[in-house]
Specification:
165 residues, five-stranded antiparallel β-sheet, globular
Length: 165
């Protein structure tokens, strides 16, 4: 599932703080017991990611989904197969560099956030983790809060529709 337009607008407002630091790309995945919702600042990349079947062999995705808590600079990922390497090379050829994937689980919800830059010389992961961790932490908290509010509102609307029907 994708998010509503209002969620996307709010997410972009929060993302602006990272955009000023050189972050060009964000992917957010929120999972609760009933649903999974995703948002990406680049629909073109998502199209390629699915059409080229990169999703099947992405070591970043595999690590993010298999851990309940991880902070993973993309430069630290090792390749276990040629298909893993292909996934990483496709990401770079699309212009996504020096990224960072963060997974956290809290209150029976899982949040996955991926960030990167189009600037290959900007070590975004190091910069965010070591020099701008306060801004990164605030963005993560705001993203989680937006997702939680979205789920509450969606569940409320769903219940209201059941009672009206």
């Amino acid at each position: 599932n994708t998010f509503s337009e209002q969620f996307e607008l709010n997410f972009y407002k929060k993302f602006h703080s990272l955009k000023k630091l050189g972050c060009d790309y964000a992917y957010f995945l929120g999972v609760d017991s009933l649903s999974t919702h995703r948002f990406c600042t680049s629909e073109n990349w998502l199209q390629i990611y699915h059409d080229e079947k990169i999703i099947r062999n992405d070591p970043l995705k595999r690590l993010a989904e298999s851990n309940s808590s991880i902070v993973l600079p993309w430069s630290q990922v090792t390749f276990s197969s040629s298909s893993d390497k292909k996934a990483i090379l496709c990401r770079k050829s699309f212009g996504l560099h020096n990224g960072l994937t963060i997974t956290t689980k809290c209150n029976n919800k899982k949040y996955i956030l991926a960030l990167s830059t189009e600037e290959s010389s900007h070590d975004l992961a190091r910069y965010l983790l070591l020099e701008k961790s306060d801004i990164l932490q605030l963005f993560i908290q705001n993203s989680m809060k937006l997702f939680d509010e979205y789920i509450i509102m969606t569940n409320f609307i769903f219940k209201e529709n059941i009672y009206v029907s």
